[in-house]
Amino acid sequence: MKRWLPWAILAGLIVLIVWRMLYLGTVSERFNGAFFARAAIDSIKLGSLYALIALGYTMVYGIIRLINFAHGEVFMVGAFATYFLFTLTPYSLVGGAALAIVMAYALMRVTELFRGRLRDPVVLGVGGGGFLLLVWALTTFTWPFWAALVGSMLATGVLGLTIDRVAYVPLRTAPRNSLLITAIAVSFLLQNLGLLVFTNRQTPFRPDTVLNDPFTLDVMGQPVLTNNLLVAIPVITLVLVLALTSFVNRSRLGKAMRASAQDAEVAQMMGVSVNKVIATTFLLGSILAAAGGAMWGLNFGSLNQPAIMGILPGIKAFAAAVIGGIGSLPGAVIGAMIIGFSENFLSALFPRTPTFLGVTEFKDTFAFVLLIIVLLIRPSGIVGEDLSEKV
Amino acid sequence: MARAGTPTAFDDVDPKRRVRNVALTLVAIGVGVLVLMFLESLGSSKLSQSLALFAIWGVATVSLNLINGTLGILSLGHHGFMLIGGYTTGLLILDEAARARILTSARSTMTEESLAISVTNMLRGIGLDALTTPDTLWVRFLIAIFLGGLMAAFAGLLVGIPSLRLRGDYLAIVTFGFGEIIRLSASTRLFAEYTNGALGFPGLTSEFGKSVWWTFGILAFTVFVMSKLKFSSYGRAMQAIREDEVAAQAMGINLAYNKVLGFVISAFFAGVAGGLWVSWLGGVRLDFFLFQLTFFFLVAISAGGTGSITGVLLGTALVVFVRQYGDPLEQTYTLQQWLTYAGATLVLMTGLAVLFRSLRRLRPRFHWSAGVLAGAAVLAFVVAAIDPAFLEGTFRGFGMRAIFLSVLLIAIMVFRPEGMIGRAEFSWSGLLGERRSGPTDDERTQDAWLTNPVLNPRGSDADVASGSDAPTAPGRSAARELDVGDERHPRDDSTDDERRG
After folding, report:
1. I need a labelling partner for B224 at 20 to 30 A (CA). Which of A167, A225, A347, B47 fits?
2. How many Cα atoms are found within 13 Å in the side-chain-facing hemisphere of A8?
């Protein structure tokens, strides 16, 4: 493919979009700059959220070629864990200690990423100290949102590790269809456990945090009411993505990760512990998904009931990962932005007018349609390299 | 001889036993009919409803098995095909009173024209007024589910086309995407005129969906078609594609044609199952066709044995049993009771773990994980017996059946991916414990190779040994007699033990 072709397509699309916006401006007063600004704001926020989820899909798929169906449910658990951490704290001693064990273990695994092994004085020190601190914190005061966010990221990371250990490790050499069926089963299990343990109805999610404070933008003379999330969600996403990218590109374990993604068998022969690499992938992916879940709750002000909350965001994020080029971190972010914009901005470009009923009610199907089109035309995605199956 | 000619469904039996087998089959059908008659005399009980549900889901799982088991493609869009069949059937057989109610309802999105679509009007249109009376409802129902099946088959054609370019999990996700697109767009403006949006069609007749005769009749027809198909040249081609696409193509099998054919046939029967399913439920609504449905079918197929029609029916029976009779799991109990039950489950799991390891001859027989399970069980029992203060209160096991089924599916995939009976099919000889008189497929292949003088000049004299005239001993063949190197016969009883040492 010519190098300039993608840029030409992008430029053409932008011209088409601007032309369409200008045309709509002549149709009705309603379709002014503020109208499109609102849609763009929603698209950016949603795209960033999808990016956080899509990174988990793309990393796991890059290494073990598994569509981790349960990732959407990990995202759901992350959202609910945040919710319970800022509403139910302080806990009783038993509950607090149990949660502290989980989180301290996650702290140890995260420290391990930098120290190289679990039986390391620093790692053990962080684990022990973190445990005591967490028990104290969980049992004495109500957690602010940021603490709940970090705590939920840690707890959800352990969930990712557990899923990998219980369901996927025994199936490393199994046919890929069995692995996929298992992933579907884990996803279904988590949905129903969520119904059983968390709640079975829509839950309001309005923590007292500065991120929710509203402010007004001025777009071409018209006010657009929004809140700090407009800045916070993309910034948090950007920080996490940059951290992840530098980890994958610079650290020793990141190098092992890239090697395993290229050829797991050879990497194993070269002394890379592939199982550990995969576990790390699940840990990092789940941590990002939990952050996405908490932000999702903030953005929409409520959490859907557990059985359905994770399905659509999860599958759309997967579509984003495929569109961007599965296995590629920047690709996942690009794909997520495309999905985010197609979902909100397309509805704004084809709104309800007296002569046309609009496309809003189809917005959930856009991701699937895009996914199918991309898979049929260019299965390797936008930035991915050719993944054609070898014989 | 049985050796020659195309192998058919159950021809691995000695021709002398064939008469007996036909007789046994007839007797079994007769017994089945008697049982169904007895059940019908009891009236519409929970048991007969569950049996009808088994038959309906059986149609769906057996058809899904054609894609997942025979063709080896993981399809996750079966609920979409069933939705199409269900909505078509629902629209076509809705009675006049229900149509009038929908037309006068303010929230309905249907128009007079779309409500005029019915089998009755079609039959009137071609002058067959005799078939529009209330006693001939069954004719109209059959026409409706047939048309529903055709609509679904058309959708299957559309879904089958991507299968030409994609493989493996990408294809699985595309089938899932298609299923979800069908479900998500059914309530939108595009189709709301025909699907009545989110309201659906209430008040459908349950006369057929809950009747064991109709459902089992259609199940029998489906199983007949599917077993004939599986052992036809089409089915063999599909199985070849499952085993190795490239090799199959090299043998001259048209991949595109066979894959799309598999999707179309499977979708047709899924549509029929969808029609029966809405009749069983007595109405059509979008939430009757969630992905959950495909998940249940996947559990059934995997539990029974992917690729085996017998196994799939066994698995369906298991899933339907859990769905229909698992409601004690979802009652409200005190926390103390829950803890006791959890302890009992853990004891059961410990036992199963030890049994599994000793059956598979894994050492050590008492793995530490079994110790952990037993310890947890003891802990649960002790805590339940002490009954401390925090066990006050009750808890409702909401969704326990689904949890049970998903844990079951994970366990199957981890411990026994081939399911209960693997790819074996039911046969009277197998049931009566008779050895097969003919060689297995593997042995046939080896025979062909060993006895071909061009390919294997050394073994051309083996012709005589396994000669076509002399009656061969059970399971004996040229391959056996030459004792070729390391080739192991899958049916050889000794290999399992040897392999695990």
Report:
1. B47
2. 5
Q: Is the pLDDT of residue B468 over 60?
A: no
Find all residues with CB under 8 Å of A239, minimum gap 6, and list them: none
Residue window 415-454, chain B: list those with CB within 8 Å of chain A.
417
Q: Which residue in A181, A307, A365 is closest to B185 by CB distance? A: A365
A186 near B CB under 8 A: yes
B366's tokens:
């008492």
Contacts of B68 in chain A (CB under 8 A): 177
CB contact under 8 A, B169 and A196: no
Q: Check residue B437 and give its pLDDT.
A: 57
Neighbours of A226 (CB within 10 A): 17
Confidence at B259, pLDDT banded by 50, 70, 90 = very high
Q: Tell whether B398 is within 8 A of chain A (Cβ).
A: yes
**Please, which pLDDT band fits residue A63 given cuts at 50, 70 and 90?**
confident
| Per-domain boundaries in chain B | 15-327, 332-396, 442-500
Q: What is the pLDDT of residue A15?
A: 92
3-state helix, strand, coil in chain B (%, to 5): 70, 0, 30
Query: What tokens does A362 get?
Result: 């189809």
Top-tier CATH class for B15-327: mainly alpha
pLDDT reading at B479 higher than 80: no
Nearest to B403 among A189, A376, A389 (CB): A189
Instruction: Indicate whether this model's pTM tops 0.80.
Output: yes
Put simply, the chain A residues between 330 and 369 with a CB less than 8 A from any chain B CB are 357, 361-362, 364-365, 368-369
- pLDDT, one tens digit per residue, over A210-240 is 888 888 888 877 888 888 888 899 999 999 9
The phi, psi pair for B308, rounded to 5°, reads -105, 125
Residue B268 pLDDT > 70: yes
Cβ–Cβ gap A371/B402 under 8 Å: no
Choose the mutation target among B414, B415, B423 for the interface with A, i.e. most A CBs under 10 Å: B414
Contact yes or no for B187/B197 (Cβ under 8 A): yes
